[in-house]
Amino acid sequence: MNPILAILLQAAGSPSIIGSLFPLLLIFVVLYFFMIRPQAKKQKEQNKFIGGLEEGSEVVTNAGIIGRINKIEGEVITLQIDQKTFIRILKVALSKEMTDSYLSRHASKEESSPE
């Protein structure tokens, strides 16, 4: 067999390093755009929501408890659930998604109800 032909056949049979790393790179790019980036965006919005809390705001906790903020002491919030019922929770226990959902449904019910 011709030595040059043997070298060409050997080179054609082994994939290049770029060709073998391309699928791995493609998987990483897909994971970044479909999983990592949206989660980071959601976390940024949640942090902005928690930073903008004020006394008197109506919020929903991760457990689904609806209340009005009575007092903010650092990382602890006192929620008024009923006239004389208060609970203390951590700021991180509040859910931006659930609060937005509740407030939008609550506002649409008020608009549609006759006065």
Give a short summary of the structure.
The protein is an alpha+beta fold and 115 residues long. Helices cover 55% and strands 21% of the residues.
Q: What keyword list fits this structure?
A:
115 residues; SH3 type barrels
List the helices and strands and how they pair.
Layout: H1 3-13, H2 17-51, E1 58-60, E2 66-73, E3 76-82, E4 85-90, H3 96-112
Antiparallel strand pairs: 1-2, 2-3, 3-4
Describe the structure.
Helix content is 55%, strand content 21%. With 115 residues, it is an alpha+beta fold. It folds into 2 domains: 1-51; 54-115, Roll (SH3 type barrels). A hairpin with a 5-residue loop joins β1 (58-60) and β2 (66-73). It is elongated and about 95 Å long. The model has no long low-confidence stretch (mean pLDDT 85).
